[in-house]
Prior knowledge:
The protein has one domain (21-263). The longest helix has 33 residues, at 63-95. The relative contact order is 0.13. The chain is built from 11 helices and no strands. By secondary structure, it is mostly helical. Helices cover 73% and strands 0% of the residues. The radius of gyration is 21 Å and the shape is globular. The termini are far apart.
Amino acid sequence: MAHIPGEPATEAVAGTTTTHLGPRAAGVLTLSVLAWAALAWLVIDMGHPLAQLTMPASSHWSVAQALAVWVMWAVMMAAMMLPSALPMILTFMKMGTDGAGVARARSFVAAYLLVWCGFSVAASAAQWALQAAGWVDPMIVSRSAGLTAALLLIAGLYQFSPLKRICLANCRTPMAFLLGEWRAGVSGAFVMGLRHGLFCLGCCWALMALLFVGGAMNLAWVAALSITVAIEKLAPQGERLAWLLGAALIATGLWRLWALLVQSDLPVTR
């Protein structure tokens, strides 16, 4: 069957689409591995001057500290999100048959990461505000029981929201997303990457906010959240697993809130 230029190729040609997928997939995974290595270095060598810039002792940040914090968040998002986005990226590569396939793939991935770089700006601003309020420490761990309970409840409730359901469905069905969003050219691939990134952000932002609970410098916590995101997107019945996670987060949040009320000796209606 002849392929129309600018249209997605839904039938892969043997020896054409698969030949280059291995190196390209390896490239995406390499980016993620490098990002994880950078995070591990920050945790292992916290005394290094560059690592210290990512952990301001107070909310009086210098320009260098603000930039370092943003870079830390952006690298962490790349480490956490690229592995679960790999099936979408590979499907996108398989569906492209024109000569600009490599450039389009790079454009798609760059746009996807740009969305998370934007989220990192918001995360950095949230970190500064929470640190100024005394609610998180320099390791980005919550000092406030109320903040911890609120973040757990927000993340849990969001798991059941229509927006979460729509965004997760788009992340879980690469072929359906790409057929519905297909655009020609390198600029079209960039728009597609932005759209996928926004769906991914809509799916995962509340879970990413839990980094303030366990600490962005806690590699085990970061890895746990990354695995949770991957399970939601890639595992069979991922939607139901998302609901179970939501219920667990709500229960934990309510427990933490109850403990806070009891500890504060506030009147509780029985």
